[in-house]
Amino acid sequence: MYKKITFFALFVMCSNFVFAQGFELGIKGGTDVQKISGISFNEEFAYGYHFGAYTEIKLSKTFSLQPEFYYSAATMNKGNSFDTLYTSIDPKKIKFGYLNIPLLVNIKLSDKVKLQVGPRYGILSSTNLTVKANAEKALKMGDFSFVSGIQLQFSKLRVYARYQIGLTDINELPNKEQWKNQSIHLGIGLKII
Fold this sequence. Notes:
This protein has helices spanning 2-21, 82-85; strands at residues 23-37, 46-58, 63-77, 93-108, 113-127, 130-131, 136-137, 142-154, 157-166, 180-191. By secondary structure, the protein is mainly beta. The chain has one domain (23-191): Porin. It is elongated. 22% of the residues are buried. Mean pLDDT is 81; it is low at 131-135.
């Protein structure tokens, strides 16, 4: 009983702190323009989409934290050298989806403009890029990236543009080239709370 009361008291105190400082919850979605670098892939961007939720916790008049959780998906073409390097992988187009968890720091430049920077961790949730012999995935399950961008605020509407560059090699195949994600996110968010 004592633990429940202590937990409830801590929850109420933390909630009061968050709401006193400023708290926002919303949904978001938009388009992704993605590319995987490496000689096996076409040096072109492919279009995809993303949707999810965000929260913003104000720390001061200038800074706030913006954790997010969203799903993104894209389909891209293999490059000409892909089939010669990876004979055991078959699909014509490579499809993949990620569950993304960025933790952004917002820097308020004006009442309507915020600069956003921070890390993002992506969890591979689906792909058709597998090794035929044993159906093992050819992409690593996790991917760290660095995100930077800008967000415009209009009442409850948020409009953002971000660039994300992969920091880790996502190629799971042994003794092969490095693959790194790059993407541009364009989207809108809607404040709910």
